[in-house]
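re: ur question from earlier - yeah i can do the single chain one, its not a big deal. heres the input i used so u can compare w yours
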Amino acid sequence: MTAATGNRRKSNASYAAAVTGIGMLTAAGIGAAANWEEVTHKNKPSGVRQPEELQGLQNDFMYLVDGADIAAELDVHSRRLMDRFSQLAVLAAREAVADAALTPSQWEPARVAVIIGNANGGLPNYEAQHATLLQRGHRRVSPMLAALFTSNSAASSVCRDLGACGPSMAVNSTCASGTDSVGYARQLLQAGMCDIAIAGGTESVCSRLTVASLCKTRGLSTQRDDPAGACRPFDAGRHGFVLGEGSGILVLERPEHARSRGARIRAHVVGYGSSNDAYSPVAPHPEGAGAERALRAALANADVSPADIGHVNAHGTSTVLNDLIEGAMLHRVLGQHPLVTSTKGMTGHTLGAAGAIETAFAVLALQHQLVPPTANFETPDPEIPVEVVAKDARPARFEFAVKSSLGFGGHNSALVISRH
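and the output i got, formated as tokens:
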């Protein structure tokens, strides 16, 4: 980064969003610390399960959150008002707020925003209630279904739980939802519409109907003989993604607000870009044109050059086409020097939650100056010209990281995150 660029960034410091808290529940662990330990010290996932709901399907396994005592954390009444994806978001948000050393009873509720991305809402609940309708009649359908399965219910649940009364929204840009939520939260902070933004994504879609449909697209891995080794981003032998559930929530603040209360700042979100391929409902643009526009827009928004980026937490789904297109795009924009990883090998593809979970991992990588390995990566693909970190976590010195996301419907988004 040139001196001139550095001066511009310093004068635009108020346009950054300070990351002061992280909360995570994934198949890799309960809590941010447990997740970080898992992705940096293991090269094989431990959270892959074969749930009863998926028995008999070509893909009968997925990454599930294990060890979260939801019954102990949420009372019966609260649980009845939330689908599982909302419950995961509430628990992750509580951790993020505690990590930020914030006390909801002491903040100004109208100055706290909640933006949570989600791709599918409460589909398992919807599917179960549809079965009830067919088998037992309309009188047995739950009156709460309409409120529980919609995508916005996670954001509204977090608002109720924390008493946050500022701007609130659900972002649904499929697999880019979590990344977009963080980007939109930063924009709300910049516009002065809030002082604190609780932003991220959540997903829980152990749904027989959904998985059966995805099997028909041939996007899911069907490696039933080794489910834990099935998700292998960027590997030459990759053959499809594996679904996961989870939630990742970040607390973002205006930097001056964070400093005024003496908060620990983990990193800053300094750039955001978004685009659409306008190409296909399921496949990315074959040349990665939309993803490239989003990444270049994020770099320009952050006022940094491609050479400044030291690490990329890639979308890296483990599908043949996505990884090839994304890898070529990253090389075209950033060259070969950034250390690239995909943490989906440890968490699965959590769809609307993925971008937020992976943004949290990028923040932790910056903070610890350590790049997690890509689980199950064994054989480099000669057609993917980027340096994929494998086997062991890689110590490195870098000031900027990128989070890249691509989603069904042609949605693309990217964030630039700064260490300082």
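The longest strand covers residues 17-26. not sure if urs matches, ping me
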